[in-house]
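R.M. (postdoc): so does anyone remember the format we settled on? I'll just put the structure tokens first.
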């Protein structure tokens, strides 16, 4: 028997992303989030408008999406309840956020130059993706109390960097899911992946069949 329920959040489990962006004064911002999903070389990011990350992406039209492994959970947690916004928005003050100017230094992470965007990559993250803003969509516009508070960003990936430790043997373009251990956020708690539970029929489709025009476009980018 199931119970009717009203959980305040519906975070059933998504990967953590560290979004690096450039502030107006050309310093770097770094923010953890996990409202994300992927389709080919595109992704959708769900972010609150009070975020400095939102302001930076809207202004610059770009960012880097860094995926931490479970080994980096400490660094990610050090960024929790910090913001690059000054003054701190009222809603974040209520949740106990504090202003932090040097996000990379606080987390103990290293910024390294990107190739197609100004925002830096996070050296310690096994997956780093340079991304360009394509479209912004509003969320919750049908509810007056929520209207204007949440946006989703459609991002097109322009470069992907993968650490050799997570690659499939003999392949530069395939991630080995037995080696890749992403950090997962589930109902505000950190988790990792367990062992494979069953072979996947979907995995019988060659990954090359999923190549899209976005990959060709990324190859043509002039640095």
């Amino acid at each position: 028997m199931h119970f009717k329920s009203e959980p305040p959040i519906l975070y059933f489990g998504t990967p953590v992303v560290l979004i690096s962006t450039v502030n107006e004064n050309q310093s770097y911002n770094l923010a953890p989030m996990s409202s994300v999903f992927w389709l080919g070389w595109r992704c959708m990011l769900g972010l609150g408008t009070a975020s400095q990350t939102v302001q930076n992406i809207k202004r610059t039209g770009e960012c880097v999406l860094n995926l931490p492994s479970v080994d980096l959970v400490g660094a990610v947690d050090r960024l929790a309840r910090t913001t690059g916004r000054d003054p701190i928005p009222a809603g974040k003050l209520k949740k106990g956020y504090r202003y932090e100017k040097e996000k990379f230094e606080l987390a103990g992470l290293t910024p390294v130059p990107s190739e197609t965007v100004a925002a830096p990559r996070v050296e310690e993250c096994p997956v780093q993706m340079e991304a360009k803003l394509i479209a912004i969509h509003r969320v919750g516009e049908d509810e007056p109390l929520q209207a204007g508070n949440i946006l989703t960003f459609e991002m097109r990936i322009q470069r992907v960097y993968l650490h050799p430790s997570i690659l499939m043997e003999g392949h530069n373009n395939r991630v080995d899911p037995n080696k890749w251990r992403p950090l997962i956020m589930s109902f505000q708690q950190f988790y990792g992946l367990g062992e494979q539970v069953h072979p996947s029929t979907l995995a019988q489709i060659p990954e090359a069949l999923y190549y899209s025009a976005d990959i060709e476009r990324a190859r043509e980018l002039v640095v």
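R.M.: ...and that's the designed sequence above, right after the tokens. Also worth knowing: DSSP finds five helices and 14 strands in the chain. The CA atoms of residues 23 and 119 lie 9 Å apart.
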